[in-house]
From TrEMBL:
Listed InterPro entries: Glyco_trans_20
Residues annotated as signal peptide: none
Family: Belongs to the glycosyltransferase 20 family.
Record organism: Microbacterium candidum
Protein name as catalogued: Trehalose-6-phosphate synthase
Lineage of origin: Bacteria, Bacillati, Actinomycetota, Actinomycetes, Micrococcales
Organism domain of life: Bacteria
Pfam families: Glyco_transf_20
Entries under Gene3D superfamilies matching the protein: Glycogen Phosphorylase B
Length: 470
């Protein structure tokens, strides 16, 4: 195994198995964002290959060294489905679902984090930069620092960081804060997330914080400054623009409209089927608008793509039942032979189909109850090369900090959500254009490459500064 000067550590490797047992690159923003950096810096990526099973040797894919971390069936159940997706995920999304605290899950989480840290320590060259990703690996920064004090360590948290009143429920709150503080820079989606983190550190560990700097006492009696700051993630905007410009994608958008019976307005929701996304609130508001007669199925259709997610976790199984009951009721009450109220799709689609849907949709509904960023909101905006369409955006999604020209909503306020949907459906083209242009400028200027550049530049600067402090 060659040692690397730049190492990404993430729960998943950036590849999936293809049909013939080979590897193909997985879709997704992080993979695209890091590709140029990986290539330039002879990078390595440490992660789980996605299926439980035995050891795999490191291998090179597309010029990047991939270092697989094996997870057993038990690891997947306890560390991934348990601690990551049934404890941290609900706790960090404001306990929308009840987090479960199980000591055996935590023990597995510690054990698996150690395995990731060891793999990273082994592949990183002297003085390398290591970038740890997300809530599955919150202990890795400190474990790595202990093993390899020569490394520069960054961490990015893709989901929200909750208020202290909620975070303090966590039986292992102290270990998690200390784990994260092993990093030189701890990145969050929103300024508020970084603030919640700093507050938790002050309350729980009694460390001093100044602006975004956190003073971390060291075993030798000195202090080290870790930075906790917001770095809002983004998308590969240009690739969405190029896809939206393709004649076949535009033809597909027209075909989608046609096959829905050419309704006057198409509303769209695209989410992983997750209780954080506010799919039920959206359906409730829409169903009531049909019931009130403010909307009619002759005029509007709601397309809801709910891509399958975490299907072995109980809360997700229950959510799916609830959503499908609601959809069934709305369709049963309001469909006609020619028109459908909700076209519900519990499926995953290729990127081209998503962009065609974005182009076909007059109104995009992002009603998350809590969301780190919500990339779908940015993807919709990027795809609207015609400067038309309306984004209805929850203030509880990180994207709301940047996308101020969207129609901002509180998804808990069903009355307000209904009014916003009506306003979106009725919005004159000129106002759509004014708003969409501002939104598009933001995602063009702030794409995912800018995100990773800014993070890595901050990380580099913090290390230089730390070095000069001696
Ligand atoms: C986490 C945070 C944060 C969905 N269905 C299909 C499909 N997708 C794509 C979307 C989008 C991605 O998946 C989902 O990203 P989101 O940001 O909306 O949400 P999470 O999955 O919860 O992501 C989130 C993100 O990390 C990044 O930091 O923004 O807040 O929760 O790209 O388009 N893509 C395709 N077919 C589908 O059926 N091709």
């Amino acid at each position: 195994m060659d040692r690397a000067g730049f190492v990404v550590v993430a729960n998943r490797l950036p590849v999936d198995r293809d049909e013939v047992g080979g590897w193909r690159r997985s879709p997704g923003g992080l993979v695209t964002a890091l590709e140029p950096v990986m290539r330039e810096a002879d990078g390595a990526w440490v992660g789980w290959p996605g299926q439980a099973g035995g050891e795999l040797d490191p291998f090179v894919f597309d010029g990047t060294q991939l270092v697989p971390v094996a997870l057993s069936d038990e690891d997947v159940e306890l560390y991934y489905e348990g601690m990551s997706n049934d404890t941290f995920w609900p706790l960090y999304h404001d306990v929308i679902a009840a987090p479960r605290y199980h000591r055996v899950w935590w023990d597995a989480y510690v054990r698996v984090n150690r395995r990731f840290a060891e793999a990273a320590a082994e592949v990183a060259s002297e003085g390398a930069t290591v970038w740890v990703q997300d809530y599955q690996l919150q202990l890795v920064p400190q474990m790595l620092r202990e093993a390899r004090p020569d490394l520069t360590i960054g961490y990015f948290h893709h989901i929200p960081f909750p208020a202290y009143g909620l975070f303090s429920q966590l039986p292992w709150r102290r270990q998690v804060l200390e784990g994260l503080l092993g990093a030189d820079v701890i990145g969050f989606q929103r300024v508020a997330d970084a603030g919640n983190f700093a507050r938790a550190v002050r309350r729980q560990l009694r460390y001093v914080t100044r602006a975004s700097g956190i003073h971390v006492p060291q075993p030798d009696g000195t202090t080290r400054v870790a930075l906790a700051k917001a770095f809002p993630i983004s998308i590969d905007t240009q690739s969405y623009i190029e896809m939206a410009e393709r004649p076949d994608v535009q033809a597909r958008a027209a075909e989608i409209r046609e096959s829905l019976g050419n309704p006057r307005k198409i509303l769209l929701g695209v989410d992983r089927l997750d209780y954080t996304k506010g799919i039920r609130h959206r359906l409730k508001a829409y169903g009531e608008l049909l019931e009130d007669g403010r909307l009619s199925v002759e005029d509007v259709t709601l397309v809801q793509v709910a891509s399958p997610s975490r299907e072995r976790v109980a809360a997700y199984i229950q959510l799916r039942d609830e959503i499908e009951l609601m959809v069934g009721r709305i369709d049963g009450d309001f469909d006609t032979m020619d028109h459908v109220a909700v076209r519900y799709l519990h499926q995953a689609y290729p990127r081209e189909e998503m962009v065609a849907l974005f182009l076909a949709a007059d109104v995009m509904l992002v009603t998350a109850l809590r969301d780190g960023m919500n990339l779908v909101a940015k993807e919709y905006v990027a795809s609207r090369i015609d400067n038309r369409g309306v984004l209805v955006l929850s203030e509880f999604a990180g994207a709301a900090d940047e996308l101020g020209s969207a129609l901002r909503i509180n998804p808990h306020d069903i009355g307000g959500l209904k009014d916003a949907i009506m306003r979106a459906v009725e919005m004159p083209a000129a106002e759509q254009g004014r708003r969409m242009r501002v939104l598009r400028r933001r995602v063009r200027e702030h794409d995912v490459a800018a995100w990773s550049r800014t993070f890595l530049a901050t990380l580099e600067a913090s290390r230089r500064w730390q070095g000069s402090r001696g």
